[in-house]
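To whoever is on call:

I kicked off a structure prediction for a single chain this morning and the downstream step that reads the tokens threw a length-mismatch warning. I double-checked the sequence; it's 260 residues and nothing unusual in it as far as I can see. Pasting both halves so you can look.
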Amino acid sequence: MSIKFTIQTAQRECEVHGQFTDSLVEQFGANPVWYGCPRCQFDKRHALEYETRTAGVTIHRDRLMNERLLEAGIPPRFQNSSLDTWAAGSNEEKLRAWHTATGFVDAFSDNFRVGRSMMLLGKVGTGKTHLATGILQQVIRNFGSQGLIGRYTTAGGIIRAVKETFGSHSKTESQVYADLVEPHMLVIDEVGVQHGTDFERTVLFEVINGRYEQLKPTIVVSNLGMGDLRQCLGDRAVDRLRDKGGLAVLFRWESARGAA
């Protein structure tokens, strides 16, 4: 478990099971922890005594959830940006944005069934990525144990991944698109900071349309307004994001960056 998120290993001695390889494992939004003897953890999960078994199952479940959250690729800066840490104060627009976000999470079963997406649009530094990653991690926490896969990426990252396939023998363009369509929920951040070329527009449309066809919810985050977003992505892409009641949340308040 968690091999890909292991920072280092060490040989230790367990009083019950003897020598074992301990692993220091990355934790989502927290400091790394040593996982201890794996055979002890196995024994706890299968113990006859209820409290011991419950504790073991809880640890195992939390570790699996940690993997799901790390696999989502949420940047460290935003790993503690949850819906609970969103600071709206008395600002009605911020409160409305928060209620829309929490409502999307609460109704995610229905949103997933119809492939309903969301757009977070507006000024720089207004908390769009905070809210988007908060939605993503809460959906993973709610449904990750049922096999849900969520992922965060940027528009620039998608375009680079496609360009890297040119002349490559290890990964094809089709595989890049398939990897982006696979997650049950995808956040695409920083839409609109590209050069606005036909190639970039085509690449992003392929991702949005592929997910649209598979009824996979997508959250697009952009500093653009709706009109400029249509120019950036094209009408067809935006119309797919708006289909089935796709939500658009406008962030029109001033930037909080640099505020005391």
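Update from on-call: the warning came from a stale cache, not from the record. Cleared it. Sanity check on the structure: The radius of gyration is 21 Å.
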